[in-house]
Write a structure and sequence with these properties.
The complex is a heterotrimer of chains A (250), B (118) and C (132). Chain B has 118 residues and is mostly helical. Chain B has helices at 7-37, 41-51, 55-82, 90-117. Chain B has a single domain, classed as Fumarate reductase/succinate dehydrogenase, transmembrane subunit (3 helical TM bundles of succinate and fumarate reductases), CATH 1.20.1300.10. In chain B, α1 crosses α3 and α3 packs antiparallel against α4 (90-117). The N and C termini of chain B lie far apart (55 Å). Helix content of chain C is 68%, strand content 0%. The chains are: A alpha+beta (250), B mainly alpha (118), C mainly alpha (132).
Protein backbone atom coordinates (compact mmCIF):
# COMPACT_ATOMS: atom_id res chain seq x y z
CA UNK A 1 0.00 0.00 0.00
CA UNK A 2 1.45 3.29 -1.06
CA UNK A 3 1.84 6.13 1.39
CA UNK A 4 -1.16 8.49 1.41
CA UNK A 5 -1.85 12.08 2.42
CA UNK A 6 -5.17 13.51 3.58
CA UNK A 7 -5.98 16.51 1.41
CA UNK A 8 -8.63 18.75 2.96
CA UNK A 9 -10.19 21.09 0.42
CA UNK A 10 -12.29 24.10 1.32
CA UNK A 11 -15.09 23.70 -1.21
CA UNK A 12 -17.67 26.25 -2.13
CA UNK A 13 -20.71 24.00 -2.08
CA UNK A 14 -22.41 24.48 1.29
CA UNK A 15 -19.11 25.83 2.60
CA UNK A 16 -18.10 22.23 3.23
CA UNK A 17 -14.62 20.93 3.69
CA UNK A 18 -13.99 17.71 1.88
CA UNK A 19 -11.29 15.22 2.77
CA UNK A 20 -9.56 13.07 0.21
CA UNK A 21 -6.97 10.33 0.63
CA UNK A 22 -4.31 10.81 -2.00
CA UNK A 23 -1.39 8.44 -2.63
CA UNK A 24 1.88 10.32 -2.57
CA UNK A 25 5.40 9.70 -3.73
CA UNK A 26 8.52 11.81 -3.77
CA UNK A 27 7.66 13.59 -7.00
CA UNK A 28 4.02 14.56 -6.56
CA UNK A 29 3.06 18.19 -6.32
CA UNK A 30 -0.09 19.69 -4.84
CA UNK A 31 -1.35 20.16 -8.39
CA UNK A 32 -0.85 16.44 -9.07
CA UNK A 33 -2.98 15.72 -6.01
CA UNK A 34 -5.72 18.00 -7.35
CA UNK A 35 -5.66 16.16 -10.69
CA UNK A 36 -5.79 12.80 -8.91
CA UNK A 37 -8.82 13.90 -6.91
CA UNK A 38 -10.58 15.26 -9.98
CA UNK A 39 -9.84 12.19 -12.11
CA UNK A 40 -10.34 9.41 -9.57
CA UNK A 41 -12.35 10.71 -6.61
CA UNK A 42 -14.53 13.72 -7.40
CA UNK A 43 -14.89 15.04 -10.95
CA UNK A 44 -16.77 18.14 -9.73
CA UNK A 45 -13.72 19.64 -8.05
CA UNK A 46 -12.73 22.96 -9.68
CA UNK A 47 -9.28 24.45 -9.75
CA UNK A 48 -7.26 26.46 -12.21
CA UNK A 49 -3.97 25.65 -13.85
CA UNK A 50 -2.27 25.89 -17.21
CA UNK A 51 1.47 25.48 -17.62
CA UNK A 52 2.32 23.17 -14.66
CA UNK A 53 5.84 24.58 -14.53
CA UNK A 54 5.43 27.79 -12.54
CA UNK A 55 5.43 30.27 -15.36
CA UNK A 56 1.74 31.00 -16.03
CA UNK A 57 0.63 32.01 -12.55
CA UNK A 58 -2.77 30.27 -12.74
CA UNK A 59 -2.66 27.77 -9.89
CA UNK A 60 -2.12 30.04 -6.88
CA UNK A 61 -3.94 28.73 -3.78
CA UNK A 62 -3.52 28.60 -0.03
CA UNK A 63 -1.60 25.51 1.00
CA UNK A 64 -1.84 25.05 4.77
CA UNK A 65 -2.69 28.74 5.03
CA UNK A 66 0.24 30.00 2.95
CA UNK A 67 0.14 31.34 -0.60
CA UNK A 68 1.71 28.87 -3.02
CA UNK A 69 1.66 27.83 -6.64
CA UNK A 70 0.12 24.35 -6.56
CA UNK A 71 2.40 23.17 -9.38
CA UNK A 72 5.58 24.26 -7.58
CA UNK A 73 4.79 22.79 -4.18
CA UNK A 74 5.87 19.27 -3.36
CA UNK A 75 3.16 17.33 -1.56
CA UNK A 76 5.11 14.90 0.57
CA UNK A 77 7.04 17.37 2.80
CA UNK A 78 3.78 19.05 3.80
CA UNK A 79 2.95 16.27 6.25
CA UNK A 80 0.05 13.83 6.63
CA UNK A 81 -2.73 16.45 6.37
CA UNK A 82 -2.72 19.21 3.78
CA UNK A 83 -5.35 21.93 3.76
CA UNK A 84 -6.13 23.71 0.50
CA UNK A 85 -8.21 26.87 0.14
CA UNK A 86 -8.69 29.64 -2.43
CA UNK A 87 -6.61 32.84 -2.26
CA UNK A 88 -7.61 35.51 0.24
CA UNK A 89 -9.53 38.68 -0.65
CA UNK A 90 -10.48 37.41 -4.13
CA UNK A 91 -14.18 36.64 -4.67
CA UNK A 92 -14.61 32.90 -5.09
CA UNK A 93 -16.03 31.51 -8.32
CA UNK A 94 -16.03 27.84 -7.33
CA UNK A 95 -13.91 25.72 -5.02
CA UNK A 96 -10.30 26.86 -5.55
CA UNK A 97 -11.10 29.13 -8.50
CA UNK A 98 -11.24 32.84 -7.73
CA UNK A 99 -12.25 35.94 -9.69
CA UNK A 100 -9.20 37.98 -10.67
CA UNK A 101 -11.00 41.13 -11.88
CA UNK A 102 -9.98 43.15 -8.81
CA UNK A 103 -6.39 42.11 -9.40
CA UNK A 104 -6.45 43.25 -13.03
CA UNK A 105 -8.29 46.48 -12.30
CA UNK A 106 -5.40 47.33 -9.97
CA UNK A 107 -3.00 46.59 -12.79
CA UNK A 108 -5.04 48.70 -15.21
CA UNK A 109 -4.98 51.64 -12.80
CA UNK A 110 -1.21 52.00 -13.23
CA UNK A 111 -1.29 51.59 -17.05
CA UNK A 112 0.83 48.41 -16.95
CA UNK A 113 2.17 48.72 -20.48
CA UNK A 114 4.99 50.72 -22.03
CA UNK A 115 4.01 54.14 -23.32
CA UNK A 116 7.02 54.86 -25.49
CA UNK A 117 8.51 58.23 -26.18
CA UNK A 118 7.52 59.45 -29.62
CA UNK A 119 11.18 59.73 -30.55
CA UNK A 120 11.86 56.12 -29.75
CA UNK A 121 11.39 54.02 -32.83
CA UNK A 122 13.16 50.86 -31.85
CA UNK A 123 11.44 49.20 -28.88
CA UNK A 124 14.73 47.87 -27.58
CA UNK A 125 16.74 51.02 -26.95
CA UNK A 126 17.69 49.80 -23.48
CA UNK A 127 19.82 46.87 -24.58
CA UNK A 128 21.56 44.43 -22.28
CA UNK A 129 24.94 45.68 -21.21
CA UNK A 130 23.96 49.33 -21.40
CA UNK A 131 23.28 49.52 -17.64
CA UNK A 132 19.84 50.88 -18.37
CA UNK A 133 18.15 47.57 -17.72
CA UNK A 134 19.63 46.63 -14.37
CA UNK A 135 16.97 48.38 -12.35
CA UNK A 136 13.99 47.04 -14.27
CA UNK A 137 15.36 43.51 -14.56
CA UNK A 138 14.83 43.12 -10.81
CA UNK A 139 11.06 43.39 -11.19
CA UNK A 140 10.32 42.02 -14.62
CA UNK A 141 9.46 38.42 -13.92
CA UNK A 142 5.97 38.94 -12.46
CA UNK A 143 3.53 36.26 -13.67
CA UNK A 144 0.41 37.91 -12.20
CA UNK A 145 -0.34 34.92 -9.99
CA UNK A 146 -1.89 37.13 -7.30
CA UNK A 147 -0.11 35.43 -4.39
CA UNK A 148 1.27 38.77 -3.17
CA UNK A 149 -2.18 40.37 -3.15
CA UNK A 150 -3.54 37.47 -1.11
CA UNK A 151 -0.61 37.69 1.32
CA UNK A 152 -0.88 41.47 1.77
CA UNK A 153 -2.95 42.24 4.84
CA UNK A 154 -3.04 45.92 3.91
CA UNK A 155 -5.19 44.82 0.97
CA UNK A 156 -7.41 43.06 3.49
CA UNK A 157 -7.85 46.25 5.46
CA UNK A 158 -7.76 48.86 2.72
CA UNK A 159 -9.44 47.25 -0.31
CA UNK A 160 -8.54 50.21 -2.56
CA UNK A 161 -4.81 49.67 -1.98
CA UNK A 162 -3.18 49.00 -5.35
CA UNK A 163 -1.17 46.20 -3.82
CA UNK A 164 2.28 44.71 -4.45
CA UNK A 165 1.96 43.41 -8.03
CA UNK A 166 0.53 46.59 -9.58
CA UNK A 167 2.98 48.83 -7.70
CA UNK A 168 5.88 46.62 -8.72
CA UNK A 169 4.75 46.93 -12.34
CA UNK A 170 4.33 50.69 -11.98
CA UNK A 171 7.84 51.07 -10.62
CA UNK A 172 9.23 48.94 -13.38
CA UNK A 173 7.79 51.29 -15.98
CA UNK A 174 8.72 54.42 -14.02
CA UNK A 175 12.30 53.14 -13.93
CA UNK A 176 12.28 52.29 -17.62
CA UNK A 177 14.05 54.97 -19.65
CA UNK A 178 12.02 54.11 -22.74
CA UNK A 179 8.73 54.94 -21.06
CA UNK A 180 7.20 58.41 -21.21
CA UNK A 181 4.29 58.11 -18.79
CA UNK A 182 6.14 58.34 -15.47
CA UNK A 183 4.31 61.50 -14.45
CA UNK A 184 0.82 60.04 -14.64
CA UNK A 185 1.90 56.77 -13.05
CA UNK A 186 3.50 58.61 -10.14
CA UNK A 187 0.25 60.50 -9.72
CA UNK A 188 -1.68 57.24 -9.38
CA UNK A 189 0.77 55.44 -7.09
CA UNK A 190 1.14 58.56 -4.91
CA UNK A 191 -2.56 58.66 -4.13
CA UNK A 192 -3.12 58.84 -0.35
CA UNK A 193 -5.80 56.20 -0.16
CA UNK A 194 -4.76 53.56 -2.66
CA UNK A 195 -1.11 54.40 -3.27
CA UNK A 196 2.30 53.44 -1.88
CA UNK A 197 1.83 55.25 1.44
CA UNK A 198 -0.43 52.46 2.67
CA UNK A 199 2.25 49.78 2.58
CA UNK A 200 3.34 48.58 6.04
CA UNK A 201 6.53 46.94 4.83
CA UNK A 202 5.59 43.57 6.32
CA UNK A 203 7.28 42.06 3.27
CA UNK A 204 4.76 39.23 3.13
CA UNK A 205 4.66 39.81 -0.64
CA UNK A 206 8.42 39.26 -0.83
CA UNK A 207 8.00 36.12 1.23
CA UNK A 208 5.41 34.49 -1.05
CA UNK A 209 6.51 35.64 -4.52
CA UNK A 210 7.23 32.46 -6.51
CA UNK A 211 9.54 34.44 -8.80
CA UNK A 212 11.61 35.90 -5.98
CA UNK A 213 10.56 39.48 -6.68
CA UNK A 214 10.55 42.15 -3.98
CA UNK A 215 7.55 44.46 -4.43
CA UNK A 216 8.49 46.14 -1.14
CA UNK A 217 11.63 47.33 -2.86
CA UNK A 218 9.62 48.80 -5.74
CA UNK A 219 7.32 50.54 -3.24
CA UNK A 220 10.29 51.97 -1.35
CA UNK A 221 11.72 53.35 -4.60
CA UNK A 222 8.39 54.85 -5.63
CA UNK A 223 8.05 56.54 -2.25
CA UNK A 224 11.48 58.07 -2.59
CA UNK A 225 10.74 59.24 -6.10
CA UNK A 226 7.50 60.84 -4.92
CA UNK A 227 9.24 62.61 -2.04
CA UNK A 228 12.06 63.82 -4.28
CA UNK A 229 9.55 64.99 -6.86
CA UNK A 230 7.50 66.91 -4.27
CA UNK A 231 10.55 68.80 -3.03
CA UNK A 232 12.79 69.14 -6.04
CA UNK A 233 10.32 68.98 -8.89
CA UNK A 234 10.14 66.48 -11.65
CA UNK A 235 13.39 65.85 -13.33
CA UNK A 236 13.12 65.02 -16.99
CA UNK A 237 14.63 61.64 -17.60
CA UNK A 238 17.61 61.37 -19.90
CA UNK A 239 16.54 60.22 -23.32
CA UNK A 240 18.53 57.16 -24.29
CA UNK A 241 20.35 58.35 -27.32
CA UNK A 242 21.05 56.42 -30.46
CA UNK A 243 24.69 56.82 -29.51
CA UNK A 244 24.13 54.92 -26.28
CA UNK A 245 22.13 52.31 -28.10
CA UNK A 246 24.96 51.84 -30.50
CA UNK A 247 27.43 51.45 -27.64
CA UNK A 248 25.26 48.90 -25.91
CA UNK A 249 24.69 46.89 -29.04
CA UNK A 250 28.35 46.71 -29.83
CA UNK B 1 -11.22 35.42 5.46
CA UNK B 2 -8.49 35.64 8.06
CA UNK B 3 -5.47 37.81 7.36
CA UNK B 4 -2.20 36.14 6.77
CA UNK B 5 -0.23 36.04 9.99
CA UNK B 6 3.45 36.26 9.21
CA UNK B 7 6.62 37.35 10.91
CA UNK B 8 6.25 40.76 9.26
CA UNK B 9 2.67 41.28 10.36
CA UNK B 10 3.38 40.14 13.92
CA UNK B 11 6.33 42.52 14.16
CA UNK B 12 4.14 45.32 12.83
CA UNK B 13 1.18 44.59 15.11
CA UNK B 14 3.52 44.70 18.09
CA UNK B 15 4.95 47.96 16.72
CA UNK B 16 1.48 49.49 16.82
CA UNK B 17 0.67 48.10 20.26
CA UNK B 18 3.91 49.48 21.73
CA UNK B 19 3.18 52.80 20.01
CA UNK B 20 -0.25 53.05 21.59
CA UNK B 21 1.11 52.06 25.02
CA UNK B 22 3.82 54.72 24.76
CA UNK B 23 1.20 57.32 23.79
CA UNK B 24 -0.76 56.30 26.88
CA UNK B 25 2.37 56.68 28.99
CA UNK B 26 2.93 60.17 27.54
CA UNK B 27 -0.41 61.30 28.91
CA UNK B 28 0.27 59.61 32.25
CA UNK B 29 3.61 61.40 32.39
CA UNK B 30 2.11 64.80 31.61
CA UNK B 31 -0.76 64.25 34.03
CA UNK B 32 1.61 63.34 36.85
CA UNK B 33 3.86 66.31 36.15
CA UNK B 34 1.09 68.85 35.89
CA UNK B 35 -1.22 67.66 38.65
CA UNK B 36 1.01 66.34 41.40
CA UNK B 37 4.51 67.62 41.03
CA UNK B 38 4.62 71.10 39.69
CA UNK B 39 2.02 73.08 41.56
CA UNK B 40 3.29 71.73 44.86
CA UNK B 41 6.91 72.33 44.33
CA UNK B 42 10.21 70.66 45.15
CA UNK B 43 9.19 68.84 48.32
CA UNK B 44 6.51 66.81 46.61
CA UNK B 45 8.60 66.34 43.49
CA UNK B 46 11.42 64.86 45.49
CA UNK B 47 9.01 62.80 47.61
CA UNK B 48 7.55 61.25 44.50
CA UNK B 49 11.03 60.69 43.13
CA UNK B 50 11.83 58.75 46.34
CA UNK B 51 8.80 56.54 45.75
CA UNK B 52 9.41 55.78 42.11
CA UNK B 53 12.96 54.77 42.92
CA UNK B 54 11.72 51.51 44.49
CA UNK B 55 12.17 48.23 42.63
CA UNK B 56 8.54 47.73 41.46
CA UNK B 57 8.64 51.11 39.77
CA UNK B 58 12.09 50.39 38.39
CA UNK B 59 10.65 47.24 36.83
CA UNK B 60 7.97 49.46 35.30
CA UNK B 61 10.70 51.80 34.07
CA UNK B 62 12.50 48.90 32.47
CA UNK B 63 9.27 47.78 30.81
CA UNK B 64 8.79 51.30 29.47
CA UNK B 65 12.36 51.30 28.16
CA UNK B 66 11.71 47.95 26.51
CA UNK B 67 8.59 49.30 24.78
CA UNK B 68 10.42 52.43 23.66
CA UNK B 69 13.37 50.41 22.43
CA UNK B 70 11.22 48.00 20.48
CA UNK B 71 9.34 50.84 18.86
CA UNK B 72 12.50 52.83 18.17
CA UNK B 73 14.61 50.01 16.79
CA UNK B 74 11.85 48.52 14.65
CA UNK B 75 10.83 52.00 13.51
CA UNK B 76 14.40 52.67 12.46
CA UNK B 77 14.43 49.36 10.61
CA UNK B 78 11.25 50.37 8.76
CA UNK B 79 12.82 53.68 7.77
CA UNK B 80 15.85 51.78 6.49
CA UNK B 81 13.51 49.49 4.53
CA UNK B 82 12.10 52.61 2.88
CA UNK B 83 15.66 53.52 1.99
CA UNK B 84 16.05 50.11 0.35
CA UNK B 85 17.88 48.22 3.11
CA UNK B 86 16.99 44.82 4.56
CA UNK B 87 14.29 44.01 2.00
CA UNK B 88 15.78 40.94 0.41
CA UNK B 89 17.70 40.39 3.62
CA UNK B 90 14.78 40.87 5.96
CA UNK B 91 15.94 38.24 8.43
CA UNK B 92 19.26 40.03 8.87
CA UNK B 93 17.38 43.27 9.49
CA UNK B 94 15.15 41.65 12.10
CA UNK B 95 17.98 39.85 13.89
CA UNK B 96 20.15 42.97 13.77
CA UNK B 97 17.35 45.10 15.17
CA UNK B 98 16.76 42.56 17.92
CA UNK B 99 20.45 42.47 18.79
CA UNK B 100 20.75 46.26 18.94
CA UNK B 101 17.62 46.44 21.10
CA UNK B 102 18.85 43.80 23.55
CA UNK B 103 22.28 45.43 23.91
CA UNK B 104 20.78 48.86 24.63
CA UNK B 105 18.23 47.34 27.03
CA UNK B 106 21.11 45.64 28.83
CA UNK B 107 22.93 48.97 29.17
CA UNK B 108 19.75 50.56 30.53
CA UNK B 109 19.24 47.76 33.05
CA UNK B 110 22.86 48.17 34.10
CA UNK B 111 22.31 51.87 34.66
CA UNK B 112 19.26 51.17 36.82
CA UNK B 113 21.08 48.54 38.87
CA UNK B 114 22.64 50.97 41.39
CA UNK B 115 19.12 51.89 42.51
CA UNK B 116 18.38 48.26 43.28
CA UNK B 117 21.52 47.42 45.26
CA UNK B 118 21.55 50.66 47.23
CA UNK C 1 -8.79 55.87 -15.00
CA UNK C 2 -6.48 58.60 -13.90
CA UNK C 3 -3.86 57.54 -16.36
CA UNK C 4 -4.45 59.79 -19.29
CA UNK C 5 -3.29 58.93 -22.73
CA UNK C 6 -0.36 61.28 -22.71
CA UNK C 7 2.95 60.39 -24.14
CA UNK C 8 5.45 62.97 -23.02
CA UNK C 9 7.00 63.88 -19.69
CA UNK C 10 7.27 67.48 -20.83
CA UNK C 11 3.50 67.77 -20.59
CA UNK C 12 3.70 66.91 -16.93
CA UNK C 13 4.82 70.31 -15.66
CA UNK C 14 1.40 71.25 -14.30
CA UNK C 15 0.64 67.90 -12.73
CA UNK C 16 0.17 67.58 -8.99
CA UNK C 17 3.06 66.18 -7.03
CA UNK C 18 1.35 63.76 -4.71
CA UNK C 19 2.94 63.34 -1.31
CA UNK C 20 1.59 62.08 1.98
CA UNK C 21 2.84 64.56 4.57
CA UNK C 22 1.48 62.29 7.27
CA UNK C 23 3.72 59.48 6.01
CA UNK C 24 6.82 61.62 5.54
CA UNK C 25 6.55 63.51 8.83
CA UNK C 26 5.88 60.28 10.72
CA UNK C 27 9.25 58.99 9.55
CA UNK C 28 11.13 62.24 10.07
CA UNK C 29 9.65 62.76 13.55
CA UNK C 30 10.39 59.12 14.35
CA UNK C 31 14.08 59.46 13.55
CA UNK C 32 14.20 62.78 15.43
CA UNK C 33 12.52 61.16 18.43
CA UNK C 34 15.15 58.44 18.66
CA UNK C 35 17.64 61.24 19.32
CA UNK C 36 15.38 63.39 21.51
CA UNK C 37 13.88 60.60 23.63
CA UNK C 38 17.31 59.06 23.92
CA UNK C 39 18.67 62.40 25.12
CA UNK C 40 15.73 62.87 27.49
CA UNK C 41 16.24 59.45 29.09
CA UNK C 42 19.96 59.99 29.25
CA UNK C 43 19.63 63.36 30.97
CA UNK C 44 16.99 62.17 33.42
CA UNK C 45 18.15 58.68 34.28
CA UNK C 46 21.58 57.75 33.09
CA UNK C 47 23.79 60.80 33.26
CA UNK C 48 24.54 60.08 36.90
CA UNK C 49 23.68 56.43 37.49
CA UNK C 50 22.35 55.76 40.97
CA UNK C 51 21.46 59.39 41.55
CA UNK C 52 17.88 60.26 42.23
CA UNK C 53 16.15 62.85 40.08
CA UNK C 54 16.09 66.06 42.13
CA UNK C 55 13.82 68.99 41.58
CA UNK C 56 16.70 71.43 41.67
CA UNK C 57 18.56 69.45 39.07
CA UNK C 58 15.63 69.46 36.65
CA UNK C 59 15.09 73.14 37.34
CA UNK C 60 18.72 74.00 36.69
CA UNK C 61 18.71 72.01 33.48
CA UNK C 62 15.51 73.53 32.16
CA UNK C 63 16.77 77.03 32.86
CA UNK C 64 19.24 76.53 30.01
CA UNK C 65 18.06 77.69 26.63
CA UNK C 66 19.34 74.58 24.84
CA UNK C 67 17.29 72.22 26.99
CA UNK C 68 14.23 74.42 26.68
CA UNK C 69 14.42 74.14 22.90
CA UNK C 70 15.15 70.40 23.05
CA UNK C 71 12.29 69.67 25.45
CA UNK C 72 9.84 71.75 23.45
CA UNK C 73 10.98 69.98 20.29
CA UNK C 74 10.58 66.64 22.04
CA UNK C 75 7.08 67.62 23.12
CA UNK C 76 5.96 68.66 19.64
CA UNK C 77 7.58 65.66 17.93
CA UNK C 78 6.26 63.10 20.38
CA UNK C 79 2.71 64.47 20.30
CA UNK C 80 2.69 64.58 16.50
CA UNK C 81 4.20 61.12 16.12
CA UNK C 82 1.89 59.51 18.66
CA UNK C 83 -1.37 61.10 17.56
CA UNK C 84 -0.59 60.82 13.85
CA UNK C 85 0.07 57.13 14.40
CA UNK C 86 -3.22 56.79 16.24
CA UNK C 87 -5.08 58.64 13.48
CA UNK C 88 -3.50 56.27 10.94
CA UNK C 89 -4.67 53.23 12.90
CA UNK C 90 -8.21 54.64 13.09
CA UNK C 91 -8.29 55.65 9.40
CA UNK C 92 -7.23 52.18 8.33
CA UNK C 93 -9.76 50.36 10.48
CA UNK C 94 -12.63 52.78 9.94
CA UNK C 95 -12.11 54.75 6.70
CA UNK C 96 -15.34 56.68 7.24
CA UNK C 97 -13.85 58.19 10.39
CA UNK C 98 -10.55 59.24 8.88
CA UNK C 99 -11.42 62.91 8.41
CA UNK C 100 -13.00 63.17 11.84
CA UNK C 101 -10.02 61.38 13.39
CA UNK C 102 -7.63 63.76 11.65
CA UNK C 103 -9.44 66.83 12.91
CA UNK C 104 -9.76 65.43 16.42
CA UNK C 105 -6.07 64.55 16.35
CA UNK C 106 -5.23 68.12 15.39
CA UNK C 107 -7.32 69.56 18.24
CA UNK C 108 -6.08 67.08 20.84
CA UNK C 109 -2.51 67.49 19.61
CA UNK C 110 -2.61 71.27 19.89
CA UNK C 111 -4.14 71.02 23.34
CA UNK C 112 -1.50 68.52 24.45
CA UNK C 113 1.35 70.67 23.19
CA UNK C 114 -0.11 73.68 25.04
CA UNK C 115 -0.49 71.57 28.16
CA UNK C 116 3.09 70.32 27.97
CA UNK C 117 4.37 73.81 27.19
CA UNK C 118 2.56 75.02 30.30
CA UNK C 119 4.46 72.46 32.37
CA UNK C 120 7.76 73.53 30.84
CA UNK C 121 6.77 77.16 31.28
CA UNK C 122 6.50 76.62 35.04
CA UNK C 123 10.13 75.62 35.08
CA UNK C 124 11.19 78.47 32.85
CA UNK C 125 9.69 81.67 34.13
CA UNK C 126 7.09 81.90 36.81
CA UNK C 127 8.26 79.34 39.24
CA UNK C 128 7.29 80.21 42.82
CA UNK C 129 9.95 77.93 44.34
CA UNK C 130 12.83 79.18 42.26
CA UNK C 131 14.52 80.67 45.29
CA UNK C 132 14.37 77.51 47.39
Amino acid sequence: MAKTVTVVIDRSDAGAQRRFEVPVGRRETVLDALFYIQNDLDPTLSFRCACRVGMCGSCGILVNGGERLACRTALEPLGPVVELAPLRYFPRVKDLVVDFSAFYSRYRAVAPYLKPRPAVVDPVVAPPGSGLREEIDLGLECISCGLCLSACDVVGQVPEFLGPAALNRAYNLVADVRDAADAERLEVVGDRRRGVWQCHSHMSCVEVCPKGLAPTRAIAHLRRKLVAQAFFGRRPRPVPSQQRFAEGAR
Amino acid sequence: MRHRVTVGSRVFTFHRITGLLILGYLYLHLALLSSVLLPQGPRDFNAVAQVVERPPFLAGDLLLFALLLYHAVNGLRLVLVDLGWFIRRRTIGLIGAGAVGLVVLGLMAGALWPFVVR
Amino acid sequence: MATAERHSSSESAGRPRPLSWSWLLQRLSGVLLILLVGGHLWAEHFQQPGQLIQYQGVLARLQQGLFQVLDLGLLVAVVFHGLNGLVNVVSERWPALSRAAGLLGLVVGTATVLWGADILWVFWYRHPFLEL
